[in-house]
Amino acid sequence: MIYFLIALFIIALDQLTKWLVVKNMQIGESITIIENFLYITSHRNPGAAWGILAGQMTFFYIVTLIVVLGLIYYIMKLPKDQKIFGIALSLMLGGAIGNFIDRLLRKEVVDFVNTYIFTYDFPIFNVADSALVVGVGIVLVLTLLEGKKEKELSK
Fold it and tell me: Is 102 noted as a catalytic residue in this protein?
């Protein structure tokens, strides 16, 4: 199925970019891409977003396995007319597995995309994180649109 190929692409891109950072940069080293906006910065995160729950690997293993199994189940049961929803789920699946691989192999997640939004230094992230956020965002938008559509039909 195309959705699993998308997830596989995300996993491969995520792991390739992380490997390049680990092999070519020291932790804390930063490369300017766009001054005052975008940097490649080698960073390690022992937790989840913003470093929360640092070192709680067993928790992350259990939660990620449940999420991955749930995503696979929903992708397998997805009606053929819900392609955008399927793409969103595949992005989430690829992102979840990408970070899961890091936690299994390194006991931490490799992050490297460092952005500044005006003067705010946004937490450093990676391809897997981006795929997860985009996938969740799409699901949110689709859910809101579906709710609005149902509300209009019930009038």
Answer: no
